[in-house]
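This section describes the prediction task in plain terms. A model, or a person checking by hand, is given the sequence of a single protein chain and must write out its three-dimensional structure as a string of tokens. No templates, partner chains or ligands are provided. The sample shown here is typical of the held-out split.
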Amino acid sequence: MPQPWQAIAQRFCSILICDEATSALDVSVQKTVIELLVRLQIERHISMVFICHDIALMQSFAHQIAVMYLGHVVELIPGEQVGSHGAHPYTQALLQSLFSVRDDRRKEIEGLEGEVPSPCEVPKGCPFWSRCRYGTETCREEKPKLKEIAPGHLAACHRL
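The expected answer:
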């Protein structure tokens, strides 16, 4: 017998928004939740917005990823391509922060330099410029627009 929420979901939901739905979960429980959400998405033909700080998790199941910094989308990329084709310096920094048991233990861990700007006073140029190793005066003064750098792949960076 269908649950009451299923009837409501079928009738009214075409988008499911999950905000940090797996952030405090054990990895095995996280996997179960993701499998359930993907099954729900397929069976109910719904779209899903999955807000998450775990880029490794996102690249494992997302169709498309929007990488954001200080509330600004800095890159839109197909999910399966983020690990190999992430182009924005912030996306690259996120990917470099991933650890694997196969990693060389001698590998230097590079942190981001600079101060995180206040979300209340986002710089007028690129929001990431103060922490970007490629930041220039143009980056500081002029906000880059999202532009297509490959089919279905957009990035907001003056150097791309």
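For orientation: Helices lie at 4-12, 27-44, 55-61, 82-85, 89-96, 137-141.
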